Every structure is written in structure tokens, then in C-alpha cells.
Amino acid sequence: MDILKNLKERYAVKLFNKEKIVSEADKEKLIEIWLLSPSSFWLQPWRFVIVESLEYKKKLRKAAFWQPQTQNSTFAIILCRIDDYSEKNFINPYIDDLVKKRWKTHEELADYKQVMLDYLFKMTKQELDAWAKAQVYIALWNMITSATTMWLDTCPMEWFNPELLEKHFSLKEKWLVPCVLLTVWYRDEKDFYAKEEKVRYDKDDMILRL
Ligand SMILES: Cc1cc2nc3c(=O)[nH]c(=O)nc-3n(C[C@H](O)[C@H](O)[C@H](O)COP(=O)(O)O)c2cc1C
User: Fold this and answer.
1) How many helices (H) and strands (E) does the chain have?
2) What is residue 191's three-state secondary structure?
3) Which fold does the domain 3-188 belong to in CATH?
4) Whose CA is nearest to atom 27 of ligand 1?
5) With a 6 A CB cut-off, is 121 part of the ligand 1 pocket?
6) Nearest ligand 1 atom, CA 196
7) What is the pLDDT, as a whole number, of residue 134?
8) Given a cut of 90, is residue 58 above it in pLDDT?
9) Distance between Cα 11 and ligand 1 center (Å)
10) What spacing in Å lies between the alpha carbon of 155 and ligand 1's midpoint?
């Protein structure tokens, strides 16, 4: 696979192919890849809500100002940041997981935990929200690229009504805040954008080499 070739052919798909469905195996593989997304301190301050049923796709479409790609894709993901950064619910579960998976003791990780607490809790709530949102966007790009490498198509979407989304998907009760949406399916060759030239600035204008 030449990843550059895949990425050059990728675009934000608006019209999805109604005949082709993403297989369960591919979907589960993608989910595994997404969970490998890196994050600061590997704290994973995100949750991904996968929307597959027609009932919820309709709700998603309404919340996303009727953008058709929400309903037509095989599935959509609401990428959320967490909204509870407490030591009890955010830091401790991570430390416990580290103890379990890396055979460490809580005592061995005490200094590391303190560094993390100092780093995070010097931030205001607003700064923490921005920090968490930035981590979510790392996962977003991982989702887009990994789908692209499997010749699957996606459309990221920031244009939605967060209040409506929170309401329809009970996100507040789960201490989640929606950041961005992604739909996954195969493109329809009739999509107007399929034949459009890629528009990006030139390398020399974007990359500074020192
Ligand atoms: C964070 C983000 C939010 C976006 N939101 C929307 C959206 O709400 N609706 C939409 O149709 N496209 C959306 N797009 C797609 C962009 O318009 C598209 O990626 C951009 O024009 C570049 O084109 P390309 O991805 O097809 O190369 C979004 C893209 C990103 C990365």
C-alpha cells in the first residue's frame, strides 16, 4: 500500500454508495485502530459514540443541520471529550489500568501520577477543555487515515448543534461533550466532489526548513 496514493485520493465524501456497506470485520478493525490513537500522558480523554441504527442516524442528521452524509453512511461516530477531570474518575482509573497492564505498583507510579496532576491541575477548566478537545482531534485524524488506508471513505463534520446532540444522545448524563462527527462508508462515484482537484497550499509556503 502506498499511503500517499490513498491520501491523495481521499476527500471529505458527501455522497455515499448505497449499495456498499462497511463489513463488521472492517468496522471492528477500525475501532481497534482508533483506540491506538496517542494522547498526552496516554490519558485518552475521549469517548467515541458509534451511531448505527436508523433511529439514531435520523437524530444525528437533525442535530447536524440535516447534512445528508450523517444518515447515508454505514455508521457515524460522535467524537466526544470527557468533561470530568477529577482525580477519582479520570486519573485514578488510568493509573489502575497502568498497574494492571504494566505490572507496576501504585507506589512505583506515585511520582508519575503527581507530575500528571501538577500538569493538568495548573490548568483552568477552560484550558483543560481545550486540551482534551485537542486530543480528540488526534483521534479524528487517525480515524480518517486508517479508514483511507482500507479504501473506506469518511466525512468529518464540525457543523452541528451541540445542545441537540447532547439532548438526543444523553451526553451530559455521561459527562461527555461532542467535539466533532465522522461518517464512514464507501463513496458514490457520482459524488460531485469525487472528480474535483485537491486544493492545498504549496509545500514551500507551508513548510519551514531550518
Ligand atoms: C474538523 C473538520 C470539520 C469539518 N466539518 C465539515 C462539515 O460540517 N460538513 C462538511 O460537509 N464537511 C466538513 N469538513 C470537510 C472539509 O470541508 C474538508 O475536509 C476540506 O474542505 C478539505 O477538503 P478534503 O478533505 O475533501 O480534501 C470538515 C473537515 C474537518 C477537518
Assistant:
1) 9, 4
2) coil
3) NADH Oxidase (3.40.109)
4) 11
5) no
6) 26
7) 98
8) yes
9) 8
10) 7
| All three cell numbers of 183 | 461518517
Which pLDDT does position 194 carry in this prediction?
87
Please report the pLDDT score of residue 103 as a whole number: 85
115 CA to middle of ligand 1, Å? 37
Give the mutation target among 155, 160, 191 for probing the ligand 1 site: most ligand atoms within 8 A of CB. 155
CA of 26: how far to CAs of 5, 21, 83, 182, 187, in Å? Answer: 20, 10, 30, 16, 16
| Residue 69 banded pLDDT, cuts 50, 70, 90 | confident
C-alpha cell at 55: 433511529
Interatomic CA distance for residues 31 and 49, integer angstroms:
11
pTM for the model stands at: 0.96
- Give the containing element (helix H, strand E) for 49: strand 46-51
What pLDDT does 18 receive?
84
